[in-house]
Design a protein that fits this description.
The complex is a heterodimer of chains A (149) and B (129). Chain A is mainly α and 149 residues long. Chain A has a single domain (34-148), classed as 3 helical TM bundles of succinate and fumarate reductases, CATH 1.20.1300. Chain A has four helices and two strands. Chain A has helices spanning 38-69, 71-82, 84-111, 118-148; strands at 13-15, 21-23. In chain A, a hairpin with a 5-residue loop joins strand 1 (13-15) and strand 2 (21-23). Chain A starts with 12 loop residues before the first strand and ends with a helix. By secondary structure, chain B is mainly α. Chain B has a single domain (23-128), classed as 3 helical TM bundles of succinate and fumarate reductases, CATH 1.20.1300. Chain B contains five helices and no strands. In chain B, helix 4 packs antiparallel against helix 5 (99-128). The chains are: A mainly alpha (149), B mainly alpha (129). The interface between A and B is large, with 42 and 41 residues.
Amino acid sequence: MANSHDAREATMIGRRTDGTIVRRPLSPHLQVYDMMQMTSALSIMHRITGSAWAIGLIFFVWFLAAAASGPDAYAGVQWFMGSFIGVIMLFGITAVAWYHTLAGVRHLVWDAGYGYDIPTTYRTGWAVIIGTGVMTVLTWIVAIIAWAS
Amino acid sequence: MTEHQSRLQTPLGRVRGAGSAKGGTHHWWMQRVTSLSLLPLMIWFAFSIAAKAGAPWEVMAEWIGRPVNAVLLIVLIAVGFYHTASGLQVVVEDYVRPERAVMLSNLAIKAVCVLLGLLAALSVLRLAI
C-alpha cells in the first residue's frame, strides 16, 4: 500500500478504529470536489501559466543570445517570431504572462491579509480574467503599431 | 518527555535529517520577494519590447546595450530565473513521486535555470560592453 521510497507517504496512511490500515483522502478530493469553480479553476490556471511561462523563457534567452551573436543569428529569431507559429506562440506567452502576473498580484494581496471573503474573491477573480484580456490586447496594439511604423 | 521529543522537530524529520521543515519559510518568502520585484520589471519589459516589434538588429542590439536597459535586463534575468526555479520546484514537489525523482528533477531544473540565466546575462553584457 505505502510507497516505501517516499517519506511523504507516511502522512497519507491512517488506521481505522478496528486497526485496519486506510489510505487518507487527498485534499481537495479529486472526485467529490467541483474543480470548475472560479476559485479552484483560477488557482490551477496560475500553476499552468507559471509552468508555460517557464517554457516561454527559452525564447527570451534565444532572442538575447541571437542578438548578442550578430545580425545573421538575429535574422533567424526575427523570421521565427514573425512566422505564423511564432506569432501564435508569442501571443500565447503574452496572455500567459499577463495572467500569471495579475493572478500573482491577487496572491500578494491575499498574502497581505486582504480579500478573503467570497464576494471579493469572485470580484478579484473576474478582475484577473478581464485584466488579462485587456493587457494582452494592449501589449499587442503597441506591438502592431510599432511593427507597422 | 523523552530526549528526542524535547526538540522542535518531528521524529520523522530527525531521521531524515532535514530539519524541522527544511528551509522553513525562506522558500515561500523568496517567492513573494521575487514576484514583487518582477512586477515592475515585467511591465517595463513587456511594453519596451512590444514597442520594438519588428525592429532591425542594429536598433535592438543598441537598445539592449544601453546601461540602464542592460542593468534592468540582467536583474530581470537573475530574479526571473530564481522565481522560475522556485515555482517549478513546488510543482515538482506536489506531483512527482518518489522523492528521489523529486530531488533529481529539482537539481535538473536548477541546472537549466542557471545555464539559461548565465547565457542570457552574458548576451546582454556582450551587447553592453
